[in-house]
């Protein structure tokens, strides 16, 4: 299951047209993905997207995939900017939540230095009844420098989505180091592609293969299934037998 992909054509910086969207879906299906959530950017620099249109757009793409025999289920979702969300009605937030269920929202980690108000913005969204899946925090330099800040957010009940390309990036990548530390600490819950086009980023199978932790497979199967169902996450697989800790959130 892939909970983060810019699959809908002609909306944001993802698939530019239907042919590109079908190609991206075919590629995902060929690598074993059976369900993909279309999560277009919902933020002030994409003002033309009406969330009420999302079900129709997803249905049209699903029909195109079925016509071509592509075995991929597409669901409604969105990658919500934390400030944008503050100005939306409950109805709009529900429309861009996973499956339109009104339970779980994918919230984008802001780029660059994180404002101190971020935690307050996330808290306000949660008090409106949504569970948050925070998109790719491992890529943010503030969290890379201060992983304890991210740890406190996770410990407050926010779920974390890692991008597959971060998990596969290699030890010289700070995003990779933080991603593996979060997996090892049990503070990451989903691995998703954040795909914008075919071949642009590592797929889920590559990411699972790049982790030696059994939690990684849970992060592309059982955990995302629970989020799509709006249910509590099932228990994660136990860590491997303790050896020297390879990844840690703690510095020094
Ligand atoms: Fe994204």
From TrEMBL:
Protein family (similarity comment): Belongs to the metallo-dependent hydrolases superfamily. CpsB/CapC family.
Organism listed in the record: Solirubrobacter phytolaccae
Superkingdom field: Bacteria
InterPro entries: Caps_polysacc_synth_CpsB/CapC, Pol/histidinol_Pase-like
Protein's name in the database: protein-tyrosine-phosphatase
Substrates-to-products reaction catalysed: O-phospho-L-tyrosyl-[protein] + H2O = L-tyrosyl-[protein] + phosphate
Enzyme Commission number: 3.1.3.48
Compositional bias segments (type: Basic residues): 243-252
Keyword entries, A-Z: Hydrolase, Protein phosphatase
Presence of the UniProt keyword Hydrolase in the record: yes
Region (Disordered): 233-252
GO molecular function annotation: manganese ion binding; protein tyrosine phosphatase activity
Signal peptide: none
Entry-linked Pfam families: CpsB_CapC
Higher taxonomy: Bacteria, Bacillati, Actinomycetota, Thermoleophilia, Solirubrobacterales
């Amino acid at each position: 299951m892939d909970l983060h992909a810019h699959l809908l054509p002609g909306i944001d910086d993802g698939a530019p047209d239907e042919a590109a969207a079908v190609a991206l879906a075919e590629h995902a299906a060929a690598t074993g993905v059976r369900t993909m959530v279309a999560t277009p950017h919902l933020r002030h620099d994409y003002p033309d997207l009406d969330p009420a249109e999302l079900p129709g757009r997803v249905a049209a793409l699903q029909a195109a995939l079925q016509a071509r025999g592509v075995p991929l289920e597409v669901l409604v979702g969105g990658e919500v900017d934390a400030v944008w969300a503050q100005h939306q009605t409950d109805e709009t937030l529900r429309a861009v939540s996973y499956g339109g269920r009104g339970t779980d929202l994918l919230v984008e980690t802001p780029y660059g230095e994180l404002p101190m108000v971020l935690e307050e913005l996330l808290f306000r969204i949660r008090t409106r009844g949504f569970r948050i899946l925070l998109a790719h925090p491992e890529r943010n330099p503030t969290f890379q420098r201060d992983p304890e800040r991210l740890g406190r957010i996770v410990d407050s009940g926010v779920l974390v989505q890692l991008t597959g390309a971060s998990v596969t990036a290699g030890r010289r990548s700070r995003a990779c180091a933080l991603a593996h530390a979060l997996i090892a600490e049990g503070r990451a819950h989903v691995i998703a592609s954040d795909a914008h086009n075919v071949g642009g980023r590592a797929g889920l199978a590559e990411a699972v293969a790049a982790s030696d932790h059994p939690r990684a497979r849970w992060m592309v199967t059982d955990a995302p299934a629970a989020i799509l169902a709006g249910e509590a996450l099932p228990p994660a697989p136990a860590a491997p037998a303790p050896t020297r800790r390879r990844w840690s959130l703690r510095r020094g």
